[in-house]
Write a structure and sequence with these properties.
The radius of gyration of chain A is 33 Å and the shape is elongated. Chain A is α+β, with helices and mostly antiparallel strands and about 800 residues long. The chains are: A alpha+beta (about 800), B alpha/beta (about 220).
Amino acid sequence: MQEILFAARRLLKHPLQLAAGLLAFFLGIGLNTAIYSIGDAIVFKPLELVGLQRLAIFEVFSRGQQLGIFDTSPADFLEYQSRLKSFESLGLEQHWDVTITRDGDPEYVSGARVTANWFELIGSQLLVGRGFRQGEDQSGNHRVAVISHGLWSRRFASEPGIVGRTIRLNREEYEIVGVVKQTSRFPGFMEVFSPIPRTPVWGQMRSDFDYSVVGRLKPGITHAQAEAELTAVQASIISRYKATHEGRSVQVVALNERVAGTNEMAGKYVRMLLVAAGFALLIACANVANLQLARVTGRTREFAIMRAVGAGRWPIARQVLIESLLLSLGGALLGCLGSIWCLDLIKGLLPTELWQFIPMWPYMSVDFHAVLTASLLAVGAGVISGVLAAWQSSRADAQDALREGGRAVSAGSRRQWFRGALVAFQMALAIVLLIGAGLMVRGANASIGIFDSKHPEQVATMQAVLPQLEYPNVEKRLDFSRRLEQGLKNLPGASEVALVNVIPMSDNGSSVSFAVEGRTMPQVADRPRALNLVVTPEYFSLMRIPLRQGRYLSADDRNGRDLVCVVDELLAKAQFPQGNPVGERLTLMLGETSKPCRIVGVVEATMHDAWERSPRPTLYRAFDQNPMLAVSLMVRTNGPVKAMVAAARNAVLAVDPDQPVRQQFSYQELIQTTLGGLRMIALFMGGIGAVAVVLACLGVYSVMSYVVAERTSEIGMRLAMGAQPRDIFKLLGGQALVMSGSGMLGGLIGGYLIAQLFSSMIFGVSSNDFWSLSSGALLLGAVAALATYLPARRALGMDPSTALRHD
Amino acid sequence: MIELRNLEKFYQHGPSKSFVLRRVNVEIKEGEFVSIMGPSGAGKSTLLYVIGMHDGDWTGEYYLMGQPVHKMNRKERNELYKQNFGFVFQSYHLLDNLTVAENIEMPLTYRNIKKQEREAIVADTLDRFQMVGKKDLFPNQLSGGQQQLVGIARAMVASPKVILADEPTGNLHTSQGKEIMEMFKKLNEAGTTIIQVSHSDLNATYGNRVIEIRDGWIEK
């Protein structure tokens, strides 16, 4: 106990050293575990599903190009279900846009049509009621629904007798049979689940590639084994359905990789953050190790005295061990508090619109495994370096150390080398993180600002999905879109009005495959694909898309007339590299049917999704000739956009009072919301970069302070030999330059490699950005120079006589 | 050559002063070999460091060859020091990562002397101190006496007019100490003024004058 008190007293005697150590722990452990907890919520434990590790999802490719997880047809699924032996069971899911009416305002929610075994298959926990029964996924029996806990509490005030009540979905009555736990749903943002209304025809649909397959692997079966079996079954299907399936391949992906998004980007970004946070932790460890080393090597004489009065090596090592443990445990405790604080801060930062895609976000808590691992690493680094240094010091010749001033005036070169290496290591990691963070911020800003020239802040947007039951035919849909367009045009302050099936940068989109008339019809997998945008004529002027050839779509391109389309220059160049595409005809493949379409114009290519590195070929079809159930509206105004959003909402209600709308934003807000995830990643990376820089600066400063203190006698001697202050600055500067310079060089090389990697991953990031961001290394260089200058100035302020007597 | 008039040094402790040197009046002529003696804590080393301009925090007047050191700033004192003084320490203060030759060369690097010229001076000095065979050794490969010899060679390499030595034999055994004192004697006979701090009456016999100091006061 007494030893602990002595140790605490010794630590408190050097409050700055103590504070630096604790700060390193606080930042290193706090940040690391907070990021790790986010990783848990997004990738590692994204849902509370029984046996999540055995769940897999099928990802489809065509000639090696990723088509996604929603690209399986019902007939293919049934064949998988009957032939695949690697899976305990397989289920099918299709997104279902749902409008809820009655029991409150009309509300649009995301829903899923699933096979009857769905909840059993994925291991969901139902709070009330049951899942679906065998046979309920047959047309006629399908009007049952399971709702989410969120919808139950929001719309039904968590009414206990909810099971057995009816809910009006897309203006049809469904019986609620169960309530599913919020964190136990898949897809995680769905509010309503209902069985697929299967018919005999449905099971024959071989090329309706619109479904997602999820399977539960048998115990002991790996993803690779299942994929091998699936590949064999797929080959058999291809041999029978060459025209539609040639070139298609399917991969078996762990389900948790696709919970936060339909592509692998979320997982990639989370892993990138984890690596970055790991780097920050390593910097913290190096800091703590350096600090302990400095503390111990500065006490050589104290240990010599202890040895002289009869202390063995173990008591000396024990003393250092107790001090190290006290500092480390205090730091680890602070680190735990830091992680709770960090996580709370981060939770508050994510916009509500993004929560729905991360089911575990609201329930995210500090992962104590991560806290333990990070703490052990940091404590280990501190204790090991401290005790080893003490052990080494205790071996020193006591008489030598006790002589006044010692015989030599420079520190052991091996220890200096080791400390220098730790500083270089910290600098290198900090620069890599700084450059990485800079690139992420640049990418996020480039993505958010991609449409700045189109003045999205002056455009009101919202989205509606018309219920099939109310709008079963073209006439009804035409009536809705024409009346809505006219209503919007009549709004005071509306300068341009457009209807479109999906708004660019809203994280939605569908593609269409096509063939050029007059050429040999390619097989399905070889058919070119293009983004399928269905727009009203004013869309081009509203979105500031310049015309390159021919004409825009016009009001004359009405239903019943010759079907026309406009293509962008990418599609034109790819399909008609030599000639003029205007007047050429395309055959569009729309599900099981095909439609002809005459090209009337070519427009400039523009971006559609921020996660793409460049625009993709796009086809614009006339809304009046292809009235859609998905109707997004865009209204440009010169007045206040908020007022226009409200007015546009009223215009929708004027056409159909029961029609809900969603995402009522200015276009700029919509883009920012869509890119919220990317912005968050950039913010996190920026935070990690900042912490890394603080830690590295702290490390450089503490080491340089110590080096200067250790060389004070030498400085005094050199002054006594006639050295000028500038000579001393040169001497210490040289040492700092070797330490920091090698770290900076290493960091710049690492940063260059990161820039190469990021430029292939993130829109708006070029490998050339490395050069401008590398100037960030100068910041650390400047801090290193300051960290050398300040203690050196202090040493030079002393008279040589004082410096020479310094110990 | 060196004249101290009414020189005092003290530390302020709140309202009171603790004197280390009191009304010191000393004159040292060129070519003298002076030993400053006295008990521990008397102020011997402090006086030596004041003379050597390593301690600038004092009052009174100090003339070096007629130049008023007390009126000079730090830079001017430094220049004056470089031209006239060499310093020998009790604990040698050699840099253990430099060889014997490099340690000796170090003061010259602070005096704007070209590399070739420096090498020639160092070679001469090594020869004069009979250390040519040891020039590539590091300090920890030498005995204490040899290390102090390197310390003296280093102090002499820039041809100072005055050598200041702070208990130069304090860490050496008798025979090594004698060797060092013989060396000082030779240097003095060659014209170098020597001022040493010593506890040893025997070492004082090598000089031609003793300044005794007690509690900061000069006694003789």
